[in-house]
Amino acid sequence: MNDLKLDRMDTKILGVLRKNGRISHQELSLKVGLSPSQCLRRVKRLEAEGVILGYSAVIDENKLGNDINAWVIVKLQRNSPGARERVALLLKNRPWVRLATGVTGDVDFMIRVVAPRMADFSKILIDELNNHPDISSTQSFLCLDDLVGGLTSMAGPAAVVDSAQA
User: Fold this and answer.
1) All residues at 6 or more sequence positions from 29 whose CB lies less than 8 Å from its CB, including other chains
2) pLDDT tens per residue, range 100-147
3) How far is C-alpha 135 from the chain's CA centre?
4) What is the mean pLDDT of the chain?
5) Helix axes 25-32, 8-19, angle to 10 degrees
């Protein structure tokens, strides 16, 4: 049960920060209608309570040479103790993974993958995923475009910036 209480002002602050995590506290306070000190106190509280986990940059993967952007669905071998943990560790340590999440249903993970070329993507699928002993199957979907949001580059823990260091 989540006992966290957010009021309308907290929700407003979060809405603005979702769109622009780099906004100054002064600008944020103007957008939400609070004094800068009140606004900063609320942001610090939301960070301390773990509502705001960090701040990240939205990266244009094409500009980095990653022309292939895909969702890969992974199904694990059943009856393989520890498979989920081993595959999760694999995914956390691969530079081509931008997002990995455990899901419900007939599959176990959905992964957002980037690669420079189709040959590189194919190598990831065959060598890294399909040949992994804990993975029974994969299915991939090439992304045409992002309709809502964008591909936030979240490869490993470096993508989350501690607000105390920012």
Assistant:
1) 35, 36, 38, 39, 40
2) 999 999 999 999 999 999 999 999 999 999 999 999 999 999 999 877
3) 22
4) 87
5) 130
Give the residue carrying structure tokens 């992304």. Answer: 143
- Residue 75, SS3? strand
pLDDT of residue 149: 66
Contact predicate 115/66, CB 8 Å: yes
- Strands (DSSP E) found in 77-160: 97-102, 109-115, 135-142
CA atoms within 13 A on the CB side of 26: 0
Q: Low-confidence residues of the chain, pLDDT below 70?
A: 1-2, 149-166
What confidence score (pLDDT) does residue 80 get? Answer: 81
Q: What is the number of other CB atoms lying within 10 angstroms of the CB of residue 136?
A: 16
- Helices 36-48 and 8-19 pack at an angle, to 10 degrees, of 80
Domains and CATH numbers, the chain: 8-48 (1.10.10.10), 61-142 (3.30.70.920)
- Supply the pLDDT for residue 3: 76
Please state, in angstroms and rounded to a whole number, the distance separating the CA atoms of residues 33 and 10. Answer: 12
